[in-house]
Amino acid sequence: MSTLVIVRHGESTWNQENLFTGWHDVPLTAKGADEARKAGQAMRDAGLWFDIAHTSVLERAVVTANLALTELGQVWLPVNRHWRLNERHYGALQGLDKAQTAAKHGEAQLKLWRRSYDVPPPPVGTDSPEHPVNDPRYRLLAPDQLPATECLKDVVARVLPYWYDVIVPQLGAGLTVVVVAHGNSLRALLKHLEGVSDDAIAEVNIPTAVPRVYELDRHFQLASPPRYLGDAAEIAAKEAAVRDQAKRK
Q: Among the CATH numbers 3.40.50.300, 3.20.20.390, 2.60.40.10, 3.40.50.1240, which is that of 8-33+43-176+183-247?
């Protein structure tokens, strides 16, 4: 069997302000940093020990990984950072308040943009500061690889090559792997690993900084049901908070 753990980053400043974040780079809040440390403690208490870590290239995921690995006693761990693990790009919604967007466009339209599998929000132009072509960290990528907006189907299409080309060979070599990323890049991976349908994935909410453990067989299929580490009531409350973001004032 192989062990894979996925962790969503801790609360960011734009999570706190209830803004669409996407590829916009923002730091963790003090609460988010504390969540990251607790994730590391939970993994340590579960007896987990990793051979390699993966994060996106966004600060909130990178810092969450650093803080969690410090608590785990593995701050030295080799870490791969890749844009394919970035959050979903929210296009023209990036930087907008979720509740205000719901009030303006209606909750049904907002849910379609946030949660439908194949309907992206309106795109941004290449002249927008929110388009990744204007971010120097992506300067070595071909412009047509960089999204102006994404739906979850698009995120699945960019995450799975990284899964197959990078992570699967590591798991196949017997390495224990942790991936620290974002709500939607991890929903894309969860959808693949757990065989969640296009419709059902809309109701999956990944809580901040709660490790989810997968035991996989030699075919990289589930060998046992995946599980979150931590208090069930606290995890349920975090999932509900993610689900109800559009209702926050």
A: 3.40.50.1240
9 an active-site residue? yes
DSSP string covering 37-83: HHHHHHHHHTT---SEEEE-SSHHHHHHHHHHHHHHT-TT--EEE-G
Backbone angles phi, psi at 191, to 5 degrees: -55, -45
Q: pLDDT tens for residues 167-216?
A: 999 999 999 999 999 999 999 999 999 999 999 999 999 999 999 999 99
- pTM (predicted TM-score): 0.95
* Predicted confidence (pLDDT) per residue in 45-55, tens digit: 999 999 999 99
Q: Would you call 87 a catalytic residue per the annotation?
A: yes
Annotated catalytic residue, options 11, 35, 71, 87: 87
